[in-house]
Amino acid sequence: MTQHHEDPRVIETDAEAYNATLVRREDLTHDLAYFWVRFDGEATPFEPGQYMTTGVVTDGKMLQRPYSVASAPLVANSEGYELFVRHVPVIRFTTALWRLPVGHRMRMIGPKGKFMLEPDDDRTHLYVSTGTGIAPFISMIRETMAQGHARRTVLLNGCSFSDELGYRRELEAWEQDPAYRLRYVPTISRPADPRNAGWAGHVGRAEQVITDVCREHGLRPDRTVVYICGNPDMILNVERALMDRGFPEFHVKKELYWPKGKAQAGVPAG
Ligand SMILES: Cc1cc2nc3c(=O)[nH]c(=O)nc-3n(C[C@H](O)[C@H](O)[C@H](O)COP(=O)(O)OP(=O)(O)OC[C@H]3O[C@@H](n4cnc5c(N)ncnc54)[C@H](O)[C@@H]3O)c2cc1C
Question: 245 CA to middle of ligand 1, Å?
Fold first, then answer.
């Protein structure tokens, strides 16, 4: 049994439903972390952009949530499924997840979801996300690169603070490698905060900079497919801004991490 002073619930260390193990964890900030969960048996095949549902038995009940997979399918057996998660300070799933030591048993099912790449799509791919919503795009980039078919990509990721920009080092490195055909555009919504001291990149929310990004990168509505993931308000605002620029609705795919109107007070948007 695992105990924690802020979350008094009892997490079962062993349960019949468990079929996977938390094999690795890396913290990015105090409330953002990467987790790797590996199946006991063969990994289940998935498409980049899909999500897995993972959980633990807490106070006698299975508590589980969906998470986009950030890793490429080809490492699912060796490394497990990589998840990029924000700790939400309400006693539900993430407070339990944050308490799990590496090696803890878990339940994982999936994959699910239709937020996937089209086969042989030679349009420019515009990926727009807030916070952890970047996860499916990392899987998409990794997989298309592994197959030797990188797609011309512009990735816009908005966060409150520059230290919350997940995968920043990898993305900056990939951007330098012409094989990736990637333009990485991070944007910070609270530039005046001391935590963002020294930030020289874009400022403003994703929906505020999307029009400039389209202009700067010459993104034409008829030659661009758009994927938007994360905070539902951002998704709707970005979609509206793109429609205003003439992007047809069927060129825009969306993955909402929670229902619109359900923002959690005190939690950065995404
Ligand atoms: C298809 C899908 C994929 C998802 N993938 C991810 C992912 O890759 N990474 C991830 O961290 N979350 C992801 N989520 C959200 C995740 O399933 C949980 O809702 C989240 O981890 C919070 O769980 P909780 O039980 O602590 O709180 P919940 O009761 O599930 O959520 C409480 C509130 O927290 C806020 N919230 C939820 N998720 C986030 C978030 N990511 N960032 C900021 N605020 C949030 C919302 O306001 C929500 O109403 C995904 C959701 C869906 C539907």
Answer: 30
Just give the CATH number of 20-112. Answer: 2.40.30.10
Smallest CA separation from ligand 1 atom 11, residue: 85
Ligand 1 mean position, distance from CA 230 (Å): 9
Q: What is the value of ipTM here, to two decimals?
A: 0.99
What is the tens place of the pLDDT at every residue in 191-237?
999 999 999 999 999 999 999 999 999 999 999 999 999 999 999 99
With a Cβ cut-off of 6 Å, ligand 1 is lined by 51, 65-68, 83-86, 88, 90, 92-94, 113, 131-132, 135, 255, 257-258, 262-264, 267, 270
Which residue owns the Cα nearest ligand 1 atom 9? Answer: 85
Alpha-carbon separation of residue 83 from 37, 65, 108 (angstroms): 8, 12, 12
CA distance 81 to 69: 6
What does the angle CA 70 – CA 72 – CA 78 come to, to the nearest 5 degrees?
105
In words, the CATH class of domain 124-256 is alpha beta
Parse the chain into domains and list their residue ranges.
20-112, 124-256
